[in-house]
Design a protein that fits this description.
Low-confidence stretches: 1-32, 36-43, 216-229
CATH architecture of the largest domain: 2-Layer Sandwich
CATH topology of the largest domain: Alpha-Beta Plaits
Largest sheet: 4 strands, antiparallel
Structural class: alpha+beta
Mean pLDDT: 79
Strand content: 35-45%
Radius of gyration: 36 Å
Number of helices: 6
Number of strands: 9
Helix content: 25-40%
Number of domains: 2
Distance between the termini: 40 Å
Order of helices and strands: EEHHEEHEEHEHEHE
Shape: elongated
């Protein structure tokens, strides 16, 4: 039996003798005040750990940058000679099996060349002009890389700016790195929790940061000599794809 007594200020007090009714009212009070539940969770212990995962993968394509530089007395002569030379390089690369979509012009420029002067205060005169024009080539068959470099030089290219190796589709390997990063973070968290005599609860948050695409790693020699006699020796090496995650757990 429950009796309610009204207080002078409008508040009321309940004297509850039925313990089951008291439990129900207590649960209702907790549900009606979500801030109380949040405060209870906020006082729980947490642990935050960082995990790093990496995967080594051999590159499956390369990007080469090759140029033609020509000089002449006039800019028009230098341009005409350069245009003819770079056209021969492009035709030779296409004849070697590279599609037009994988060839892109880059680094075009016309520069004056000044004569050297030994007298001080004299304004140097233009002695001629230099024209530079280049192409960037995506090589999707690494067995042809050394041969393509040789073809480019023999057809008129007199400068190779760079060779960059890439992984054409790194997403699958990146997912592997992410899984390894999560496993590394969990292993560290379980080690610390076990040492502290507690257990991991639910994951409260996961944050990814510092995702790195393919970066140069260990080297791997390509057997290009057998594929193209006289080809330049090239080493493609391996690329490293890495992921970094930070995970926060509740502690039981």
């Amino acid at each position: 039996m429950t009796r309610f007594i009204t207080a002078p200020h409008g508040a009321f007090y309940a004297f509850i003798r039925n313990t089951s009714l008291a439990a129900c009212l207590g649960a209702a009070l907790l549900m009606a005040t979500p801030g109380l539940a949040q405060d209870t969770q906020s006082t729980m212990g947490t642990i935050t750990m960082e995990g790093i995962g990496s995967v080594a993968v051999a590159p499956d394509m390369a990007v080469i940058s090759t140029n033609v530089a020509t000089t002449a007395k006039t800019a028009s002569d230098a341009l005409a000679e350069n245009s003819a030379s770079i056209a021969m390089v492009i035709d030779a690369v296409k004849a070697a099996g590279v599609e037009a979509k994988d060839i892109q012009t880059q680094g075009f420029g016309i520069y004056p060349r000044y004569e050297s002067s030994t007298s001080s205060g004299r304004q140097p005169k233009i002695a001629g002009y230099e024209v530079r024009n280049g192409i960037e080539v995506n090589v999707r068959d690494l067995d042809k890389l050394g041969g393509l470099l040789t073809i480019a030089v023999e057809s008129g290219a007199n400068s190779v700016g760079s060779i960059r190796f890439e992984v054409s589709d790194p997403e699958d390997k990146l997912d592997e790195a992410r899984k390894a990063a999560v496993a590394a973070a969990r292993q560290k968290a379980e080690t610390f929790a076990s040492a502290a005599g507690v257990e991991l609860g639910n994951i409260l948050s996961i944050t990814e940061s510092n995702v790195q695409g393919p970066v140069p790693g260990m080297t791997r020699a390509l057997s290009l000599a057998s594929a193209a006699p006289g080809a330049a020796p090239i080493e493609a090496g391996e690329e490293t794809i890495s992921a970094n995650v930070t995970i926060r757990w509740a502690l039981q």
